[in-house]
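User: Hey, quick favor. My workstation is busy. Could you predict this chain's structure for me?
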Amino acid sequence: MCFFFFRKTATCVASWVFESVPVDSRMNSKARSLLWTIRRFSTLLPRSRALRIDPLGSCRPEVIHSKWNPRNHRLNVFDEGLQPSVRYLFQDIFISKSVHGCIQTKGISHSAVFKPDRILCPRTLSFDAKHSFASDGTSDHDLKKINFHHTSSEDVFTKKVRPTPVNYKKLAQECNSLSDVLDTFSKAPTFPGSNYFLAMWIIAKRISEDKRRFERQLMFSHPAFNQLCEQMMREAKIMHYDHLLFSLNAVVKLGIPQNTLMVQTLLRTIQERINECDERCLSILSTALVSMEPCMNVNALRAGLRILVDQQVWNIKHVFTLQTVMKCIGKDAPSALKKKLEMKALKELGRFSVLNSQHMFEVLAAMDLRSVVLLNECSKVVIDNVHGCPFKVLISILQSCRDLRYQNEDLFKSIAEYVATTFDIWKLKQVIFFLLLFETLGFRPPGLMDKLMEKVVQEPGSLNVKNIVSILHVYSSLNHVHKIHNREFLEALASALTGCLHHISSESLLNAVHSFCMMNYFPLAPINQLIKENIINELLTSGDTERNIHKLHVLNACLKLDESPYKSMHMPLPRLPLSASQPDEKLAEVLSRLLEGEGRFSRNVPLPHNYHIDFEIRMDTNRTQVFSFSDVDASSATNMQRVAVLCVPKSVYCLNSCHPRGLMAMKIRHLNVMGFHVILIHNWELKKLKMEDAVTFVRKKIYSDEALPTTDTTV
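Assistant: No problem, here it is.
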């Protein structure tokens, strides 16, 4: 009773001193001594009845389980040299007046919360504590004389019942589901809460996608989930920075919505403490930000990360960290920062492992940096180690090359040859995925394409609609023809497509028939289905109508010009917009000098079925003499050959070859049907030549009997 009376008296005096005595330079030494004594008595009071502060500055009562004291767990992250009494003293310094109405119950204690001006944080504890002592006029020498090692009987009891921090790896091994982790948390919550999220993410990674989706729903509905989120927000200010970053990464990967209060609190706290970021933290933070959608806090954090990387780029020691950071900074990063990261990567090139070289393609594509030197060096490593490379890695490399517009024929050949050599171990959809990427890169792998053609001929029943449309698109676009099984291949695809007509969409049917027609093959059942009035109307009024109209015009041209049974069919289609194509000016000047005047050739000649040619020349059938357009009459028409001169870019050919792609091969075939002899002038070769050399170059093309590629134009 005496002790209780003394404690109440000390509390009242403390309240009176805080409210009435200003702390300034005029305070006399006796007042300071009295204040210090009162505070010392306050720290000696039993903790269960002392006023406590919420370190997060929350404005609501804090619910604390009797066997789970957040203060006890916060002590773990404090400096070991700082004794408990000093911590209690430091916390009490920020109390400016007493708080009444504290209610206690058995098992759970509700302590009133006072929001201080400064949030208590272990990162600044030592400095603030020292500063607080100095502000009271107490010297360091006086502090040494004070015994800070007082331990009450309740302190000893609390240490005995304090739960030990849970190990997230061990927890992930012991639990089989996300709900099991939350059940463990609800029984005995421990610090830090990040360990529970990490354990749940480890469990989520090892289960199937369908089960993960179901477990995520159970996680959101679990009664302890909200409690764990609240604990996570309370601990954000005081946990170690790397734990904070691991928490953000786990929370995002678990699929917790990004606009929730917890995620935004973590993002804001990470922003405030970003100066604590070391190389390891840079890697964790970059990994988390890569998978997050843009928002105000994410954008601000990414901007801060860029500044930090710009300052620390030369101090990064690990190649993996460098690549993770490069992938995170994004395509809109400043050019100077991209260049600096490129120079750092070139400097570390000698330390690249095989995995680093494979990963570098995706990294450069993520930041939209087309570093040819880096790509060339990494390509050499990939070529030397392509055998055994996983499917996802090879696909990622090809996708990155497509995004960066990087064409390396040796790299593509090595991947295609590896897939063709190990053809039997790949699934059909994997092979088709490889070919689709090769098609976007303009690369034609004959060996791999022949292998797939043989498989289609042998097993046409294994194809679905998506496979059929994709295969037809690749083979028509790359204009590939099998020397032996070409007819059987087309018939097998047509048969498989006919079996799918009852459930195929109009656009998929149009794409398939369009590809067949480009390859000069006309399957009756699919075409009859496509040219129905209701199908045509649907294509003209829904979906990508501009693209559909263009493909229908191509289909109509093939049906009219090629050997098909539909020459008399009329397909009412809207007109295509006129293309603003201009013939090459240098080639026009070369022809003017070569043919001695403008009257011996015509420019930009329009033709039926939306075709046009750059230049037309009229010659004799032996192509030894050029006629003027005004001199051609009915008598000379029988001995006349119309010559179409086309100035073409590299894109009309397959990569590093003279093999025309599908549309160009079809145009050459149709121009031949219209009576033209076609001459192709490569614009990239013409640009390199001086005028005299260009005239000689074009003369050889026009007056010689140089044959066009026959394998492609006669398909």
